[in-house]
Structure to design on (225 residues):
């Protein structure tokens, strides 16, 4: 396992950053609000393609927080046993035992528990690469791609889907026939899937995931129209 190097910014802080963005703050403002540099906020925004790459709901109590790991490290340094630590932080002894065994730091051939290293190891394990849904589900990808490109046609040959903006006498009328006008938005596609496939849970995708497929290169599966 590679060295963790300098402690990284916690995922909890990044989650707070995206929550601040959802309240309407700019990336730089959200970064300052959660106590990180504007450069870090700009990097998170760029890597996420403007969309949060994580669930913003509160973390489930099943997982130890960094604060709990700090308390474990302190109690361990004071000589507390597994059961005493479990009682003090309100966790099961098996959880503490597993945490000390899996996420301890190896130093001079000895296992020492340090909160920063334990958090780094836990986050490393949690970063299991998962293929994007639009990459592995060909039917879903074709459905989304056709509607993004405005290629869905009705029986009479007219474009299917949401009605485009009406021509108001400005610019050229033929611009209303361009593909980017006929294309569906990710929000429209996401909602329509539930109508067209009411009993097929595999044909579900959020509009955020579609945006990421369009704009985040590492998550790419859709080409922009």
């Amino acid at each position: 396992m590679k060295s963790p190097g300098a402690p990284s910014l916690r995922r909890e802080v990044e989650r707070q950053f995206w929550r601040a963005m959802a309240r309407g703050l700019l990336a730089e403002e959200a970064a300052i609000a959660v106590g990180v540099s504007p450069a870090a906020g700009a990097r998170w925004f760029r890597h996420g393609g403007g969309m949060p790459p994580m669930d913003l709901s509160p973390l489930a109590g099943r997982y130890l927080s960094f604060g709990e790991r700090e308390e474990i490290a302190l109690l361990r340094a004071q000589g507390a046993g597994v059961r005493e630590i479990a009682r003090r932080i309100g966790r099961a002894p098996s959880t503490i035992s597993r945490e000390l065994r899996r996420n301890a730091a190896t130093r001079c051939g000895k296992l020492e528990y340090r909160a920063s290293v334990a958090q780094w190891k836990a986050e490393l394990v949690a970063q299991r690469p998962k293929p994007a849904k639009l990459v592995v589900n060909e039917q879903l990808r074709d459905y989304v791609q056709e509607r993004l490109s405005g290629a869905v046609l009705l029986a009479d040959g007219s474009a299917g889907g949401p009605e485009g903006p009406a021509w108001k006498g400005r610019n050229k009328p033929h611009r209303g026939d361009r593909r980017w006008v006929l294309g569906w938005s990710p929000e429209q596609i996401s909602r329509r899937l539930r109508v067209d496939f009411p009993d097929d849970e595999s044909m579900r995708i959020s509009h955020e995931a579609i945006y990421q497929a369009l704009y985040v290169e590492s998550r790419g599966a859709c080409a922009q129209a």
About this structure: Confidence is low (pLDDT under 50) at residues 173-177.
